[in-house]
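Anyone able to model this chain together with fe (iii) ion?
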Amino acid sequence: MKRRINLIIKNASELITMRSAKAGPRCGHDMHELEIIADGAVAVDKDKIIDVGRSKTIAAKYQAAKTIDAGGKTVTPGLIDAHTHPVFAGDRSNEFEMRLKGATYQEISAAGGGIKSTVKAVRKASEKELVHISLPRLESFISCGTTTIDAKSGYGLTLDDELKMLRVIRDLGKIQPLELIPTFLGAHEIPPEYQGRKNEYVKLITEQMIPAVINDKLAEFCDIFCEKGVFEIEESRYILDFARKHGLKIKLHADEFAPLGGAELAAELGAISADHLMAVSDKGIRAMKEKGVIAVLLPGTTFTLGLKNYAPARKIIDNGNPMALATDFNPGTCFCESLPAIMNIACTQMKMTPAEALTATTINAAWAIGRGESLGSMERGKQADLVIWNIPSYKHIPYHFGVNLAMAVIKRGKRVI
Ligand code: NIG
Ligand code: FE
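re: yes, here you go
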């Protein structure tokens, strides 16, 4: 007797399962272990994966209410974007143009642009407006094969506006299929009204914002822009330590422009991830490895800023550190929802292989957002988040760039594209 289930996807030229006997992100050479099943099929019941195997084997075991024929194309787990800023109002195309004419990100910020200009626009927008403007961005993520994202606040920078942003993130998660993991980023910038009074803003974050965020259950993670002239090491340690002691998991924007020692701080505090790392030191890489901090690299940002100093991905991988890739989607430094585009940049500019890039946007990205047990691979009991790509092999995801290759996207067992 065949077991009755909801869905079978069959006839995948490559079913990229990313299965593994050991839990945890894949490091070093293991990033090439994609556990591919040729002529593969995946069996889904309700919102969960229940089996994977050869198409014939799956057909012999299960009777599905619905079957999707992948037609000799590639099937992967849904991509996971471990670092995004998807809620904002306005745009910064003017700054894009200013940078092309030679201004730097820091100069634009010092002149009142940058994050501060988005903060102005977000403070003016209502919750309803922010939901409305952000929705099409989320559709864009999904249409490029992403099924889960980390979503940060950080453009409000008052108690009310930060809570407003986090409520928008929560509500967006309820009205469309992309899954959003909320991250509180009140320490994204020193707001203009606290210029010269940074300590008072730090107090506002710890004494009012973090307790309110926890009380209203609006975030899982606390993040910080740890950077020269923004939140330096001491302030970052204070805020993150406070957040951690009050039950939030922590991550950092670390060593993006200046080698401040953000990676070392991430290791010291037991952060889940340290992100950016363009200027990370060798000591920082070693400290992160020792504590299992995941390096989340954001090469789309380096690319958009027109810089050459990409994070040392090869060094990080070859040293055996866990690592993931993300878009850093935001209006200033990387206005891109497409992880396949980021994978292309990671391969061509940081010399990652296509297999490493896929591992870094599936199972390793799942661990970087605290979802390693439930997302990122096709294993019995994991959530059925899947993508059928219009390509014969996974290598085409970074190779065939600039067009959308995702043919069908399944989220929690339901086809959403
Ligand atoms: O991750 N570096 C700081 N934060 C964002 C940029 C945000 C912005 O410019 O609006 C980042 O790159
Ligand atoms: Fe960021």
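The CA atoms of residues 265 and 298 lie 19 Å apart.
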